[in-house]
Design a protein that fits this description.
Elements (H helix, E strand, L loop, with lengths): L3 E8 L2 H16 L6 E6 L3 E4 L12 H6 L3 E4 L6 E4 L3 E7 L9 H17 L6 E3 L2 E7 L8 E12 L2 E9 L20 E3 L11 H16 L2 E3 L2
Helix pairs in contact: 3-4
Length: about 220
Amino acid sequence: MTTCLITDLGFISYSDAFALQRRLVAARKAGAIDDVFLLCEHPHVITLGRNANRSNLLASEPVLRQKAVELHETNRGGDITYHGPGQRVAYVMLDLKRRRPDVRAYVAALEEWIIRTLAAFNVRGERREDRVGVWVRRPEKGTGFEDKIAAIGIRVTRWVTLHGIALNIVPELSHFAGIVPCGVNETRYGVTSFVDLGHLVSMPEVDTILRREFESLFGLTARAV
């Protein structure tokens, strides 16, 4: 199994990160590079996946511009989501032919990666068969209430992956009010974060666990120089 190279891009626009992913995927397909794992944060942006329903965009485009929220269409699966400061985004470019060429298994592994990371901070994350992402039960809000703490959106082309996960650490949750996150519009399903759950953790602390649990599922990593 190849070593996955980790690069922290810091604060980067969605469009620049997307363009970089596409270049890296092309290089991975050509065998010019090994697998890659990118960490970053984005300025306020709403992205629409290939299956996005425009009615799930609740804020008008003029209002979004006024609030300095960008809007991007992208080629990942899924519906609509928000990215912004305080959210850890991880993009993963893996050659699944060298691992396990099974898209469902890959998505399940991403969910497990998040669940194990949350567990290290005493947060119980759970997967749902009818809702992609990782969820946290909120019984204090009422029976059956759950909030999403991490979103997953991927694309696989010739068995090379791109896009990945977004884990809410300390984002401003009010920005999610401009969308129906991932198209899930039942009132008992909301969005949460580490800080919303009362867990004050830093981005570097989360990154350390993300790397550790990534290695437990996908193999060794190495930091970019």
